[in-house]
Write the structure tokens for this entry.
Amino acid sequence: MEEYAFIAKSNAVKIALPQDEYDHSELLDDWLANWKVDLIYSVCHEHRDEFYPRAGKHAAIVEGLTGYVDDADVAIMQRYSVPFRERKIDVGYRAKALPVYFGRLGRMKSELGDRFRSGMTGRGLKLDISTHPCDVLVGDAWLQFLGNCRFTLGCESGSSLIDPRGDIRACVERQLQRNRSARFEELERICFPGQDMNRVYSAVGPRLLEAAIAGSCQILTPGKYAGALNPGEHYIPVEPDCSNADAVFEQMQDDSANEARIGACYRALVDNPKFRYRHVVSDMLAQIRNIADKKGLALARGGVRSAQPDEEADLREAFTLSTLRTHQHHIEDMKEIRFVPNFLHTFAVVLGRLVLRLGRRIRG
């Protein structure tokens, strides 16, 4: 905060794109208010008044998403997508087990996979469902995986707990240090009794869009899904406890109906400008221009005026320093993986430090 304090003093247009707004929400609000942020893209937009009582007095708060449709991914998927009826995997799913302090909604991602697998056992389906970190798929491998799945399991992401200053998280972590096998119910009783599921802070996750791009029929727990999807029309609804597994399995057998759902889902998400990166960028540039006009900031030809020379130098130095630190932490995380990535990241850190040192000399 000290290294970036100059941003609070700057009159530049300031934009925040936070995620997981329910985690340390009060600290987030204080931060954005103290920095006089002008525009906030909130992924839990319907709860904006609860999240930003201070920042909202200065900032405009608009709806944001946790991810958007990337034109490059659409193009890549044309190479990876297998015709629906020829795909080798019946149901594919990857999810991370979220910490207890995200409540029951946070746990649903991992529990849904386990319950669905149990509910579909013995039905002759090829399932590729995992919540294990070793089975994570990234980049093109993830798109290739989706392009070979007839169905993709999913649910809304988010939390059913709000933790204004991190007290719930601190309590949970203390209890787990004492007893690593403590059950959710025990931690709830000690750290957040009566608080879970009072409100649900959910958002559309990027995988929903990626599965639509891949032409995979989605099996989803009922939810809002940004008002774009309806059960039956765009996806096969599955109860969070998978109690309707028989009905889900029966609907999976109707290829014509499922191909119709795939087409409807594609039109609702991929063809919808609201979910495109190009749309949010265009909207953001328009917002910047409006805010700049209100602040009396001059516009350069072809775009918004850049920061003053001193501000720009400070920003670049701070950004470079934070990037180097990220690389350094990444090296420590990758020690057990492979030598080559370690070497490349170490080289990047050393080179970056030399450039930073040279830059400081030039500025001096």
